[in-house]
Write a structure and sequence with these properties.
The chain is mainly beta and 428 residues long. 0% of the residues lie in helices and 51% in strands.
Length: 428
């Protein structure tokens, strides 16, 4: 995986996911078994004052399943040299990275060109990376350096570990170097507070230390310098089994009585080993679930769809809760909160009004309202607590049904009176 950044015709900088810099004008993407893939096919050093030195690092990543041996690394072009000892021949393990630092030190004003050649036994054979830069005479003004990017060797980390990262500039850092402030959005990823790009260099490396997480998440690494801010997204995954729930809250909104409404939630095995959801329980009147038979085992990356249904029998707000248990801890590890409101499907309602009892030595403190459907002799209490006013609105009526109502008064001791005269209302 490679990243590139370029700003107009000014000096540009690019890095592999490990480190390095330069302007990527084009280059290989991906690789085939046996490939040694450079982070860029072209590096531009931009404008550098004659007699000054700018450095850039290119990385060579082994994207094969077998080790690759690098036998030679050569550089051409009078103004370009290799920095340090490369200790060749060198063997790069599968998925490993070998870095090479190239320096540009112009001796005269004007453009310069060269090549970096890497010879290995990989399927790609000899890799050639073009080099370019412009020498500026002493006293001329070169483009000021600014932050170009922050990137890391790996875009995802499973469990614990560290990631080799780098910040890059658009031009060589000035005398005294350039300090870049670093930060992480996740407490599970630790980075240094600052990293300094040395004078004359285009990049500086640092390490991101990753602690174990209990749920898959994205950590954002940020770098800031000179008023510019760049970010890099690092995916953190759980080592071992892990459960990711598509939504932890499901709202059904208004649902007509006795008319089921269904929503689905995706359950994902987001860890590195098989996940077993051992049990799923639900609480809440009117809520049910289906679609997953417990225990359910999901391989890494596999998903299952949990269907949730709300079928209210009475009007009013309702809440519920789904609790899932898995083999991560053996206990309840995920919950889904449910809510919805039952409403009358017809829009009809019955409004009752009555007079308080007269000529009594035991005054009423409230009333109970009872209802029977279609001439039944069985009455159901409608109010959940004593109704204080002498009015009541029944919003749970259904089309084509006849309802008979009776009201009793309740005294301070909770004793009810005999029922009132019945009242019948027919719903069209």
């Amino acid at each position: 995986m490679h990243k590139s950044w370029c700003i107009g015709l000014a000096a540009c900088c690019a890095v592999s996911l490990l480190s390095g810099c330069g302007n990527i004008e084009g280059g290989p993407s991906g690789g085939v078994p046996g490939s040694l893939v450079p982070s860029s096919s072209a590096i531009s050093f931009g404008t550098v004052t004659v007699g000054q030195t700018a450095s850039a690092t290119v990385s060579l990543r082994n994207e094969s399943i077998d080790p690759v041996k690098i036998s030679q690394i050569n550089v051409s072009g009078q103004a370009f040299t290799l920095a340090g000892q490369n200790n060749l021949p060198a063997t790069v393990a599968s998925a490993g990275v070998y870095t090479v630092t190239v320096q540009f030190r112009p001796t005269a004003a004007g453009s310069a060109a060269g090549d970096l050649t890497v010879v290995s036994n990989s399927d790609s054979g000899t890799s050639t990376i073009t080099l370019s830069g412009t020498g500026a005479s002493t006293g001329s003004t070169a483009s000021p350096a600014s932050l170009s990017a922050v990137s890391c060797d790996s875009e995802s980390i499973v469990g614990t570990g560290s990631d080799n990262c780098a910040v890059t500039l658009t031009a060589a850092a000035p005398a005294g170097g350039m300090a870049v402030n670093l930060a992480s959005s996740s407490a599970s990823v630790t980075v240094p507070a600052t990293v300094t790009v040395a004078a004359g260099s285009l990049s500086a490396g640092f390490s991101a230390t990753v602690a174990a997480v209990t749920a898959a998440q994205t950590a954002t690494l940020s770098a800031a310098a000179g008023g510019a801010t760049e970010t890099f997204a690092l995916q953190l995954s759980v080592s071992g089994p892990a459960l990711t729930v598509g939504s932890t809250t499901v709202s059904f909104g208004n649902v007509s009585l006795n008319t089921p409404a269904t929503q689905s939630v995706t359950l994902t095995s987001s860890g590195t080993t098989a996940l077993t959801i051992s049990a799923g329980t639900m609480t809440g009147t009117g809520f049910t679930m289906s679609g997953v038979t417990f225990p359910a085992t999901l391989t890494p990356g596999q998903t299952a769809t949990l269907d949730l249904q709300f079928d209210p029998a009475t009007s009013g707000a309702a809440t519920g809760l789904v609790t899932l248990s898995d083999n991560v801890t053996g206990a309840a590890t995920a919950t889904i909160a449910l809510n919805g409101t039952g409403i009358s499907a017809t829009g009809y309602q019955v409004q009752l009004t009555w007079n308080a009892p007269e000529s009594t030595t035991d005054p009423a403190v409230g009333y109970n309202i009872y209802r029977a459907a279609n001439g039944s002799a069985t009455y159901t209490l409608l109010n959940s607590s004593v109704n204080t006013p002498t009015t009541f609105t029944d919003t749970t009526v259904q089309d084509g049904t006849s309802y008979t109502y009776e009201v009793t008064s309740v005294d301070a001791s909770g004793v009810q009176s005999v029922p009132s005269n019945p009242y019948t209302a027919a719903i069209p």
